[in-house]
Amino acid sequence: MTEKEKRILKRRLKFLLIHVAIVVAAAVCVYPLLRIFSVSLRPGDKLFSTDLSIIPPNATFKAYSDLLKHTLFLRWMWNSLVITLATSVIGVSLASTAAYAFSRFRFPGKKAGLILLLSSQMIPAGMLILPLFLMIMKLRLMNTYLGMIIAYSVSSLPFSIWILKGYYDTIPRSLEEAALVDGTSQVGAFWRIILPLSTPALSIAFLFNFTTAWNEYLVARVVLFSSQQYTWTLGLFELQGQYITQWGMFAAGSMLVTIPVLAVFLYSSKWLISGLTLGSVKG
Amino acid sequence: MASVEFKGIVKRFKDNTVLNGVDVDIKDHEFVVIVGPSGCGKTTLLRMLAGLEEVTDGEILIDALRVNELHPSKRQIAMVFQDYALYPHMTVEENMSFALRLKRTGRSEIEARVQEAAGILQLQKLLKRMPKQLSGGQRQRVAIGRAIVRNPKVFLFDEPLSNLDAKLREEMRVEIAKLYQRLNATIIYVTHDQVEAMTLAGRIVVMNKGIVQQVGSPIEVYRKPANLFVAGFIGSPTMNFFSGQLRSEGDRLLFVNENMKLPIPSFLLHDGDRHAGREVVVGVRPDDVLVGRDGAECSGKMEAVLEVCELLGHRENLYLKLGGLRLLATVEAFFDRSPGSAVTLCFNYRNMHVFDAATERRISE
Lengths: 283, 365
Known about the structure:
The complex is a heterodimer. In chain A, 71% of the residues lie in helices and 0% in strands. Chain A has helices at residues 3-41, 62-70, 73-104, 110-120, 129-138, 145-170, 173-182, 186-197, 199-215, 218-223, 232-238, 247-268. Chain B is of the alpha+beta class. Chain B folds into 2 domains: 4-233, Rossmann fold, CATH 3.40.50; 240-356, CATH 2.40.50.140. Chain B contains 9 helices and 20 strands. In chain B, strand 1 (4-13) and strand 2 form a beta hairpin. The longest helix of chain B is centred in the middle third of the chain and has 18 residues, at 166-183. The A-B interface holds A 172, 174-175, 177-185, 188, 193, 196-197, 275-282 and B 50-52, 71-73, 77-79, 81-89, 98-99, 102-103, 130-134, 136, 139, 146, 150, 163.
C-alpha cells in the first residue's frame, strides 16, 4: 500500500468513526422522544409494552383529541407561552444592557458585581424557592403571570449577562467610536452597532431564557395554585392521579409541548451564525 | 475647513502622565503629521481632539471654539481609524452614508455625496458589497470615503496605513497626498512611520514621551533637528552619533574623542572658544559619511574597516568600524570593496549636527 493510499484510508476511517459516534449520540437523544411518541399513539393508557414498533398496532390520535377536549391543556400552553415569551424578552433586554455596562464602562464594584453574578449561578435552584416565594408573596403576585415572569427573569439574568458580556468584549471598541464620531450617542452606538452585531449571543441568551422558563416546574409549583393559571408543566402532572395515570394523554401532551421549543430553535438557528464582525477591522 | 489649537494639553491615566503640556497650532488647510514612537501620546492627542478621550488639563480649540466638553459628533471632525472600523453589518454604501442618515439628510443629497466620494476613491463598483468582501486597501478607501462624505472641518487619520503591506501602503500614501490636493482640507495625520511623515506633511510634529520635541516643515526637521531624539528618529537609516568633547586648539575648535579628532568649522559653531570644554554629541547622517573620496571635498580623512555591505538597489549601506566606533555610511551602489578591507572616509561638514550632551539640544547652526 502506497503512502497516498494509506493517507486516504486513514482519512476514510476517521470520517467513519466520527459519523458512527454522531449517529450513536443522535440515537440516544432521539430514542426517548420516539418512545413517548409511540406511547401517545397507543390505544388505552399503556405505558409499558413489549412492542418496539414506533407506530404501534391500532395507532390512534385519541389521546391527543382527549387532551385537547377534556383538559385545560390549551390554557396551560397559553399560560406557559405568555410567561416564557415575556420572560425571554425582559430577560434578554435587561441582560443586554447590563452586559454592555459591564463590558464597556469602568465603575466601582464592576469586578465584584461580575463575580457575584457568577456565584449566584452556583446556588442550586431549590435553595432559591423559599426566598422567591417570600418575595412574590410580599409583592402580592402569587398565582399571577407577573409573579412568574419576575421570578424567571431574575433567575436566568446572571447567565445571560455573562454570555453577552463575553460577546461584547470581542466587538472592537473602534466601531462604537466611529459611530460616536459619525453622530450617534452612546445609546445610539449600542442600538445601531453593538446590538445588530450581537445577534448570535442574543439568540443564545433568548433560547436559554426560553427553554429554562418553558420547562420550569419547581417555582411554578410554589407560585401558581389555580389550575386556570397553571403552566403546562403543572398541568401535565394533573393527569397523574393517585391510582391511575393517563399515560396516553401525558405522552400526547409531552409531544405537543416540544413544538414551540422546536419552532424557536429552528427560527433562531439562522441568527446563530458566527463571524458577524468579519471585515469590520483588520484581523 | 478650520484651524486647530492645542493649548497646554495634559492627559493622565491614574498616575501615568501620557501627555505633558502639548502646545500645537494647526492652521486652516494645513496637512500636519504627528509622528513619534509607540506610546509617545500621539494617538491619545488625536483621540482627545476627536472627543474620544477626556482632556485632563488644557484646551482644545477648533476654529477658536473650545471643544473640550463637546460631544464627538458636534465637533465637525471625521476620523479614519487604524483598523478601518467599518460597520460590518452594513454595505459600503450604508457605511459611507451612515453619518448623513443620522443627520436625516435628504435621500438625493446622500446619494450625490456618496457617489462623489466613491468617484474620488474609485469605489463605485463596490458600493453594494459588505466589508468582509473587500481587500485591506479597499476597506481603507471605504473608511476614507466615510470621512469625505461628511464634509468635515478637520480630517483625522490615525495610522491609517499601518495595517497594509508595503506596496499597498505606498499606493495609498500617494492616494492620500492626491486627496489632500483635491480637498485642500485641514488634515491631522498620526503615524509612527517617518517616511509617511516626510512625504505627506506640510508640517511635522515630532513627539516623544508625551512632549512635543519639534514642530517644523519636513526639510526643517530633517536638516535642523532640534535635539538628539529628533535627529535619531527622523531620517532612514538613522544618524550616526559620536560622543566627545570640544577643545580649543589655537584658533581652531576640535571635536575630540578616543577614536577621532574632527575640526569643527565656524559655520557650524560660532564663538568656538565659548564652547571649549563642552561635552557634546556629534551627529552625521549616513549620506554625509563620504567613503573613498579624494581631493578637496574630503578634508580630515580617517581610516576605517569595512565590516558589512548591504546592497539596497541604487544605494548601498556600508557598516564601518572606526577604531572602537561603529558607523554607517550610505553610498552609491555598487561599492567595489570586500568586507574586511580598509577604506578612507570623511564627513560632509555642511550637514553635520552638534548637540549638547547634557541637555541633548542642538547647539550647531
